[in-house]
User: What shape does this take?
Amino acid sequence: MTSDEHARLMRVNQANWDARTPVHVASRFYGLDQDLDPERWFAAFEWADLGELTGRDVLHLQCHLGTETVALARRGARAVGLDFSAASVAAAQGIAARAGVDAEFVRANVYDAVEALGGRQFDVVYTGKGALCYLPDLARWAEVIARLLRPGGLLYVVEFHPLLNSLGPKPAPDEGPELLLRHDYLGGDGPVRRDATHTYTDGPAVEGATESFEWMHGIGEVVTALTGAGLSVRSLRESDELPWPRWPRMTRTPSGWWRLPEPRIPLLYGLLATR
Assistant: This one.
């Protein structure tokens, strides 16, 4: 697939996320009409890995509504969120203002982030939880990351495990509760096309642009892309918990997140790398 075709499919995704945004803003899933608690989207190990953020320049790529960006700012970071959806950026600006948080938001495709941010560099780049599947080219993404980080800077990717992405989100009407592999774990076979009127949140149907495309990326592909761009991988965690109950059989854990009954499988991973 050519770079022009990748760009076209990402424009389709951009329109889809513009259409999703008002549904997500009004959803119970995000709960933005209640007291904002953006830290509920973070596992405890994330804060341990990120370390002290006070006074550090932190960039949150593919930030959507900016809830995690707000949490990073509340931890003392000079936080910037970047997203390709104009609707998402506008919503994020409003959410941060209502939270009384000083955070900057920039609309740009992640591949254009260096230019959109005027060549600025950061101490920390944070990304994940449903972000990488919307990127067709991880080698190019990693090169952008390397240019965004200061020497010694930290990249933290906290992403849904490719095993999770391979499992169907729910059984078909004539199936039992067993989890079935429905999608590739490994990438390379091109994008998966989806056309859905409802997103992962509650709420009404998406109006207008319902089509989207996702690319599968195994952990090996992520690591290879980052090391190929000159970054050094420091740690890789795998977690069996999710911040919401994707399947009915999941149970609440002491952390407030959700876990499947045994046998335990990885659902989330945290990758720490440095430039």
In short: The chain has a mean pLDDT of 89. Residues 41 and 234 are 23 Å apart (CA to CA).
